Amino acid sequence: MNKPITVTQPSLPELEEYTELLKTIWESKIITNNGDFHKQFEIELAKYLKIQNISLFSNGTLALIVALKALRITGEVITTPYSFVASTHALHWNDIKPVFCDINEHDFNINPDKIEALITPKTTAIMPVHVYGNPCNKEKIQKIADIYGLKVIYDAAHAFGVECNNKSILNWGDLSVLSFHATKTFNTVEGGAIVTNDEKLKKRIDYLKNFGFADETTVIGYGINGKMNELIAAYGLLQLKSIDTQIEKRKQNVNFYRKLLTNIEGITFLNDFENIKHNFTYFPILIDKNKFGKTREQVYEKLKENNIFARRYFYPLISQFNAYKELPSAAIENLPVATKLTKMVLCLPLYAELECEDIERIVKIISKKSS
Ligand SMILES: *Cc1c(COP(=O)(O)O)cnc(C)c1O
Question: What integer pLDDT is reported at residue 370 of this predicted model?
Answer without folding.
Answer: 57
